[in-house]
Amino acid sequence: MATIRRSTSDLETKLANYLLSMKEGEQLLGIRDLTEKFGASLGSVSTTLNYFEEINAVSIKKRGRLGSTLEEKSLGKLWGIIEGGPMVIALTLPSFTKCEGLATAIYSLLNNAGVETYLIFIRGSISRLRALRSGHCHATVISAMAADELSGEGETTLLTLPPESFVKEHRVFYRRNRMNAGDPLIVGIDHDSFDVAYLTELEFGGDDVIFQELTFTQIDLHMAESAVDAAISNSDHLERMVGDEIASRSLSPEVRATISDRGTSAAFVARVDDVATQIVLTEVLVPNQVLNIQQQVVDRKLVPRY
Question: What is the pTM of this model?
Fold first, then answer.
């Protein structure tokens, strides 16, 4: 995937970032202050502001000596000036309805705000953070637990949704006839998924087990074919397998106390220096609206769209 495109006009980019950061109704700096701030001529600043108004990126009310105020701003138009392309957000694979609902909410709210949006789906929070750091996406959605444990100085968590917004629950799924066997259990683990690997090591680290590397999205296949005896997955993805041969249980009290609700909460992570992404996402992704759309998809009242 190509690196995200940038605007070629330095002054337009700077002014668009400045206006994007403002609240509607807020007073702009005076024209001379803007020229000093951005190192441009009076004519260039005035021409650029007029152009922004012509394309409906902003509406500015001029009040003479009283200064000018930002009456309205178009997040989509300003984003387009700054980035010259769509906003790209990385999510987990849409293999269950809760993820589809979150993807639908993000896609719908941003596009309704005029921000062209591409969603990319990458298995594993470690890989999604790698995509963020390499500039292949503007933001990524991972669990709050992964955000706490993996984010570095270059990343910031913009928004954390309530518990069960990422997954409903992580549980231990196991083969009933193997839990009391004498030989070690074969436990599936996916090191590309921080959540799965971290929880598996917490839950089974002190036990007599053999860890078997696998892809967490194929845990159902491995368990159905008796390749593994137990694995941790989210209930949204694997609860359908519970029956005569496969059972599930909650994580141990010690593990639940360690992780609290962080493993089920969705967190939006962006780069610290990417102010435009931070502003757009925090202004557009109102938690109640995100959760409402997500729940409609989960309840089959809304067709997923992403």
Answer: 0.89
